[in-house]
Structure formats: C-alpha cells, structure tokens
Amino acid sequence: MLKKYLEFLGIEKDRFHVAWLSSAEAERFVKIANNTIESVKKLGPAKKLVRKNFNSDGKRI
Q1: Helical (H) or strand (E) element with 37
Q2: What are phi and psi of 7, to 5 degrees?
Q3: CB within 8 A of 15, min separation 6: which ones?
C-alpha cells in the first residue's frame, strides 16, 4: 500500500526498500545498503520529483 502511495506522489516503487534486521546483523546491513544503493543508481535521477531551476526570465538554468 505504501509503495502505491509513493508512486502516486511521483516516487518510483523501486526507490523504496524495507528490510528487517537486528543490531547484531552489521554484515547483512552493509549488504542490504549496498544493494539498495546500486538499484537506485540504476534507476538514475528521479523522473517526477526533479526540481527545475529557472531564472527570472523563465529560462532554465
């Protein structure tokens, strides 16, 4: 349900990851974090939530 809501807001569902682990699982945490970073890098920049910068003339900077 949360992933559907995030998509509605403009966040691709693959940018959101949830994992349950304990404080004793440092090695697993590192693996999950690295996998998450790699999958988000593959997605590239966010498509809908990218802030566009414009100057006072309305031209993109």
Answers
A1: helix 26-43
A2: -60, -40
A3: 6, 40, 43, 46
